[in-house]
Amino acid sequence: MSKYPIIWFYILAFKISWLGWIPMVLGSHSIAPFDNPYFQFLLVLPAVGPALAAVIVTRVAYGKAQVRDLLKALIRWRVGLAWYLVAVLGPVVLLLGGQGITKFLGFPATRPEPQGNLLPLVISAFVMSLFSNPWEEVGWRGFALPHLQKRYTAWIATLIVGVLWGLWHLPLFFWAGNPMAEYSFLPWFISTVAGTFIYTWLYNGTEGSLLLVTLFHITLNTLGVVITGVSIIALATLYVLVALALVVAFGGANLSHRKRVCAG
User: Which of 24, 49, 84, 171 could connect to 17 by a Cys-Cys bridge, CB 3.0–4.6 Å?
Assistant: First the structure.
């Protein structure tokens, strides 16, 4: 593992996570015995898969001290008020912008507006995000990104993380009844890869704070339930424009006004 930490990380992250998702996919198509609801306990695996993979590889390749440093980034809160505003208000701007593009260009909304009381849906989205997004970020931004940035420029490292992050979600598109199964894969994939540039900008700009990246991730997923009427094509278009703006404004080498964060 010490020789190829990134490769081992992705092998483990995919294996652990897909071990939880694939039974759900099979069960959703009434394939026994996976249609038994007891298999849902396996969903803990994709929730913690990226973080568990990162911890295993870090422990084996670098030792206990590096594992502590990896996890401590989740509570790195001294980053300046402006970054908190970006993490909380950024998703609002992005979703409202996507909503505006959808209406202006006449795109069909990817998901219809929910009927009835929104509160249970918002609470459900928040709780699911709270229990899964931090562990995603430990893997994607806490481990993979700084290791890749040690070898590549920020924009190339971001592209690699974005492509593999998108492919990691692939089983969800075959899970009947899952909201993501309603999306067209290509525009969703483009939006995910392009959106990864925002995460890198947040991560490098805060000198490696997973707390701020996680806050952005949780807020975006939670508000997606509230700010509806957004086409995935419109969102992909917006993310691509934002990604290009970040590269132009900060340069592809660091994607930030600070030096890119590299693994020690």
Answer: 49
In contact, 141 and 211? CB cutoff 8 Å: no
HSE (CB half, 13 Å, CA atoms) of 9?
Answer: 28
Q: How many CA atoms lie less than 13 Å away from 230 in the CB half-sphere?
A: 26
pTM assigned to the model: 0.95
CA distance to 99, 110, 124, per residue, from 105 (Å): 10, 14, 31
Q: Do the beta carbons of residue 124 and residue 237 sit within 8 Å?
A: no
Report DSSP state, residue 252. Answer: T
- The answer to whether position 183 is within a domain reads yes
Give the whole-angstrom CA distance, residue 76 versus residue 97: 30
The C-alpha atoms of residue 243 and residue 161 are separated, in whole angstroms, by 14
pLDDT band at 262 (very low <50, low <70, confident <90, very high): very high
Measured distance CA(27)–CA(59) in Å, rounded: 35
| Predicted confidence (pLDDT) at residue 170 exceeds the cutoff of 80 | yes
Q: Give every CB contact of residue 69 below 8 A, 6+ residues apart in sequence.
A: 264
Structural domain includes residue 37: no
Number of domains within the chain: 1
